[in-house]
């Protein structure tokens, strides 16, 4: 909306070759409260003045020597182009009214001038003109914001592309039907996909369990992080790949496809991942596991369950020698270890006791085994409850 103060402070130009008419219009507008009024009796100066001041309203007399109002309007039209024309013509010739409107005038007032009619038409024209200017400013502001946002998006896309190139071997996008729409890098070769228009997986090259898991994730619209799968290459070598993906949805929550990244991982990294997963499995089984140095009897590693059952942190547990933990002598443990190492086989499970962190005694059954780690023998001791009710009381 336009406030009254905005209308009354709008810029107005009076153009008439008769000084008496100019003075009369200036007085009438001043009495109505308008405060920004200019005038000229030279029609040739109008366009230059309008370029400088961008008037909100031009009161233009049509009958002037040397340059009439129609010629002035042609110049104003070039300045305004597609904007709302600010011209209100004043004429005593009825036949000029239609011609003036066709020439670009937005309204007219007939001579002799009736004051109330003139003020009403001026107010209405100024209100429309100011609304158009506000709309232009808003559009300019919006366009600037769009340009800025577009630049930000381009910069963000560039950073995203750079990041994916640095952290992965390829980037991919699929549509809702599973067809690849965007690929960057050797996607097809590494995913084991026919490069025809159907983008079909080559199932004979895949580990079938891994393929089934990936297809299930995609079918249920689940994201997957660092999914590792294996492909059998034509040369007989197994290739290990790691891929991450997430489903994409539009603003109406409609599924539109998947996007993600992938990379080829080395055999060393693949083995590390396998070992990491195996370690996680050891940590959650309901058995305490300790790795023992058979020479020093020190605990060199343990699983989470051993820490839970004894009440010791892993750091504390690694500082305790096994004889102290099991309340037994080094000699008796040495005899057991010698038998295990000599036979390289499991020692018969035996009952024993373990002193917990709170000084209570834990009745256990211990099983000893061994393995060779780069020439060094390691004893593996597994602890389980000798009575089920004790286990239940601890875990509860």
Detailed description of the structure:
- The chain has 396 residues and is α/β, with parallel strands linked by helices.
- It folds into three domains: 4-137, Rossmann fold; 168-274, PAS domain (Beta-Lactamase, 2-Layer Sandwich); 285-395, Beta-Lactamase (2-Layer Sandwich), CATH 3.30.450.
- The protein is 43% helix and 27% strand.
- It has helices at 4-8, 19-31, 46-53, 69-80, 96-103, 115-167, 187-191, 208-219, 267-284, 304-310, 314-317, 322-326, 330-343, 388-395; strands at 11-15, 36-40, 57-61, 87-91, 107-110, 170-175, 180-184, 224-232, 238-249, 255-265, 288-292, 299-302, 347-355, 361-373, 376-385.
- Helix 3 (46-53) runs parallel beside helix 4.
- The longest helix has 53 residues, at 115-167.
- The two termini are 70 Å apart.
- Residues 388-396 have low confidence and may be disordered.
Query: Can you name the CATH architecture of the largest domain?
Result: 3-Layer(aba) Sandwich
User: H/E element string?
Assistant: HEHEHEHEHEHEEHHEEEHEEHHHHEEEH
Strand tally is 15
Shape: rod-shaped
CATH superfamily of the largest domain: Response regulator
What is the straight-line distance between the termini? 70 Å
Mean pLDDT: 83
Strand order of the largest sheet: 2-1-3-4-5
Question: Which descriptors would you attach to this protein?
Answer:
alpha/beta; Rossmann fold; Beta-Lactamase; 3 domains; 5-stranded antiparallel sheet; rod-shaped; disordered C terminus
Quickly describe the structure:
This protein is an alpha/beta fold. It has 14 helices and 15 strands. Helix 3 (46-53) packs parallel to helix 4 (69-80).
């Amino acid at each position: 909306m336009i406030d009254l103060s905005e209308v009354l402070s709008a810029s107005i130009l009076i153009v008439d070759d008769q000084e008496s008419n100019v003075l009369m219009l200036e007085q009438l507008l001043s009495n109505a409260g308008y405060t920004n009024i200019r005038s000229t009796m030279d029609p040739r100066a109008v366009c230059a003045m309008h370029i400088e001041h961008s008037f909100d309203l031009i009161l233009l007399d049509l009958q002037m020597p040397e340059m009439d109002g129609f010629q002035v309007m042609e110049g104003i039209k070039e300045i305004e182009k597609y904007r709302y024309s600010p011209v209100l013509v004043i004429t005593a010739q009825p036949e000029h009214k239609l011609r003036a409107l066709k020439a670009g005038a937005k309204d007219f007032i007939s001579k002799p001038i009736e004051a109330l009619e003139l003020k009403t038409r001026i107010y209405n024209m100024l209100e429309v003109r100011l609304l158009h200017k506000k709309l232009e400013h808003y559009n300019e502001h919006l366009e600037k914001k769009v340009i800025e946002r577009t630049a930000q998006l381009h910069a963000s896309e560039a950073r995203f592309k750079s990041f994916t190139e640095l952290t992965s071997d390829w980037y991919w996008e699929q549509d809702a039907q599973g067809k690849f729409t965007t690929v960057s890098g050797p996607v097809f070769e590494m995913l084991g996909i026919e490069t025809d228009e159907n983008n079909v997986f080559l199932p004979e090259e895949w580990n079938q369990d891994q393929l089934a898991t990936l297809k299930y994730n995609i079918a249920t619209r689940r994201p997957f992080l660092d999914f590792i799968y294996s492909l059998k290459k034509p040369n007989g070598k197994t290739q290990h790949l790691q891929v991450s993906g997430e489903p994409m949805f539009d603003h109406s929550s409609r599924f539109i496809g998947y996007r993600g990244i992938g990379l080829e991982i080395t055999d060393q990294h693949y083995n590390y991942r396998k070992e990491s997963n195996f370690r996680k499995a050891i940590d959650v089984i309901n058995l305490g596991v300790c790795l023992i140095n058979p020479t020093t009897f020190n605990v060199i590693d343990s699983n989470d369950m051993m820490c839970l059952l004894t009440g010791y942190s892993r750091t504390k547990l690694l500082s305790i020698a096994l004889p102290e933990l099991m309340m037994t002598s080094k000699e008796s443990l040495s005899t057991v270890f010698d038998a295990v190492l000599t036979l390289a086989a499991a020692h018969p499970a035996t009952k024993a006791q373990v002193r917990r962190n709170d000084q209570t005694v834990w009745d256990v059954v211990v099983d000893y085994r061994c393995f060779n780690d780069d020439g060094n023998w390691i004893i593996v001791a597994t602890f389980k409850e000798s009575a089920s009710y004790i286990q239940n009381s601890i875990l509860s």
